């Protein structure tokens, strides 16, 4: 039997996004990497964490939109 978890989503979840400064930092890492620059291990770990967070927020927004439509 599959496990089902009910979660109450905040009404403003659709607005959840990375703050502008954080999104710019992630973009700067991505731009540097695209330009062929090697990121340090710490920078790579930070970029991966920020990308994971952005992906999670996007997934939550999409689920909130689907739940309200």
Structure description:
This protein is mainly α. The chain has one domain. Helix content is 62%, strand content 0%. The protein is built from two helices and no strands. Helix 1 crosses helix 2 (41-68). The protein is elongated and about 45 Å long. The two termini are 28 Å apart.
Q: Poorly predicted ranges (pLDDT <50, ≥5 residues)?
A: none
Give a count of the beta strands, DSSP E runs of length 2 or more: 0
- What's the main sheet like? none
Helix percentage: 55-70%
In percent, how much strand structure appears in the residues?
Answer: under 5%
Label the structural class.
Answer: mainly alpha
The gyration radius over C-alpha positions equals 16 Å
Distance between the termini: 28 Å
Overall shape: it is elongated
Mean pLDDT: 87
Order of helices and strands: HH
Number of domains: 1
Number of continuous helical runs: 2
Question: What are its keywords?
Answer:
about 70 residues; 2 helices; mainly alpha
Structure summary:
The chain contains 2 helices and no strands. It has 69 residues and is mainly α.
């Amino acid at each position: 039997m599959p496990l089902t978890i009910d979660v109450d989503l905040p009404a403003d979840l659709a607005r959840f996004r990375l703050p502008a400064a954080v999104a710019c930092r992630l973009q700067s890492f991505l731009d540097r990497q695209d330009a062929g620059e090697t990121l340090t291990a710490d920078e790579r770990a930070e970029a991966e964490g920020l990308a994971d967070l952005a992906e999670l927020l996007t997934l939550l927004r999409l689920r909130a939109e689907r739940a309200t439509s």
